[in-house]
Amino acid sequence: MNENYPELTQRFLNYVAIDTQSDETSTTVPSSTKEVDFLANLAKELEQIGLENVRTMSDGYVFAELASNVADESVPVIGFISHVDTADFNGENIKPQIVKNYDGESSITLGASGYELNPTAFPSLLKYVGHTLITTDGTTLLGADDKAGVAEIITAAAYLVAHPEIKHGALRFGFGPDEEIGIGADNFDTAAFGADFAYTVDGGPAGELEWETFSAASATIDIQGRNVHPGTAKDTMINAIQIAMDFHAQLPEAQRPEHTSGREGFWHVMAITGNPETAQLRYIVRDHDRSKFENRKQILLDIAEKLNKHFGQRRVNVTLKDQYYNMGEVLKDDMRPVALAEKAMKALDITPIIEPVRGGTDGSKITFLGLPTPNLFAGGENMHGRFEYVSTTVMAQATDTILKIIALAQEK
Ligand SMILES: [Zn+2]
Hints:
Elements: H1 8-16, H2 33-49, E1 52-56, E2 62-66, E3 78-83, E4 97-99, E5 108-110, E6 115-117, E7 133-135, H3 144-162, E8 171-176, H4 190-193, E9 197-201, E10 209-210, E11 215-224, H5 240-249, E12 266-274, E13 278-287, H6 290-311, E14 316-324, H7 328-331, H8 336-347, H9 362-368, E15 375-376, E16 389-391, H10 392-409
Parallel strand pairs: 3-8, 3-9, 9-15
Antiparallel strand pairs: 1-2, 2-8, 4-7, 5-6, 7-16, 10-15, 11-13, 11-14, 12-13
Helix pairs in contact: 1-3, 3-10, 8-10
The structure holds zinc ion.
């Protein structure tokens, strides 16, 4: 498979050599100039390849198109999307190591960092016997999340341009910033993008196909106490820290991230700050099921109400903010993109792995902006840290999957 895409690995290595970390503390869009520069270069590359209507949108996204070469106008317009930023871990001076023909047993030494990848700690390595693996040198992340996705999509697009005999409908490509800080797709312009449905190519091992995510909200609990000298506090002091602890104690212990899996949702306390006068709790709320999700938010309001009643005063205030919703709510009514991806993988002897994501994807937001967008594997393992790696075989499989989806979509 790799022989079909001789430039895929080098393209990926070119991308990861450039630091594109997003910046959570920034107020600009995109959040870092590193991303802006990278996207500007990417736009040039898309033009060089021969894609059409390459343009940079006001939210930083670079869009490109390839016109249909079939007469049938009923063929859906399909989009492929990935993000260029990397996660909150050193992304400067990435020096990838290439391990050829991995034997499935040895430890891979990560440069001179003292860290190593070994199959005891990382059993995922056992899947890659005989593969060429790309790892870090132990001092940075790799950035396969999601530059593997970027390289795979662009390689597939270049392949189609170089092989005009391959029939395809109209195609759309989108590359964006700030996925890792959760805001990159907030204003994704689905009308300008112009696809009937799309895929993010941004995930783990071969076969991953994701069309359900969490629904997500953040909750901030502000607590007002009444501080007096502790020596004369009897029947007077209302300690905000104590209220915060009482508040948290009313949430079921079993429904924390560390005790849940699969389709079980949770409340996750992210921060607690305070003194006897004021305190604050910050939570994230997650559930796949929308009614359970709404109920989880209501429970926070109810606990606050109960405490306020107890004090006879408004001392506890809950601020809720929805972050994204389970794309499955939309996709279940139009499973075309999921069915097509499943069919493509099976045709390539790749076993589809379909599981609800315990998180969100750019597709969670884009789907609710009107463009159904499930997620396809890009190949990364151990993402967001120094142990990240990717198999070049799986990167080629992801490219195959993109091309197979495109081919199947124009067949009757
Ligand atoms: Zn990603």
